[in-house]
Amino acid sequence: MRTIRMAGTAGTLLIALWAGGALAAAGGNKCSTAVPNTQGGPAGSAKGFKDCPEDPRPHDERVFTVSPALAFGPLPAAPVETDRWAGVIGNAGYRVEVPHNWNGMLVMYAHGYAGTGPTLGVSNPSIRRHLIANGYAWAASSYSKNYYDVRVGVEDTNALALAFTDIARQNGRTLAKPKRTYIIGHSMGGHVVGAAIDKEAEKTAVNRFKYDGAVPMCGVMGDRELFDYFGAYQLAAQALAGYPASSFPTTDWATIGPAVRSALFTSFSTVPTPQGMMLREVVKNLTGGERPIFAQGFANSGLQNVVWGTFGGDGTINGILNANVVDTRRIVYQLDNDPSLTLTEMQLNAGIIDAVADPEANRLRRDGLRWIPQVNGKFNVPVVSLHTLGDLYVPFHMQQIFRKRAQANGSSQWLVQRAVRAPSHCDFTIAEQAAAFDAMVKWEQTGVRPEGDDVLTPSTVADADYGCRFTVNAATSPEDSPVTITTRGFMPACSAP
Question: Is the pTM of this model over 0.85?
Answer without folding.
Answer: yes
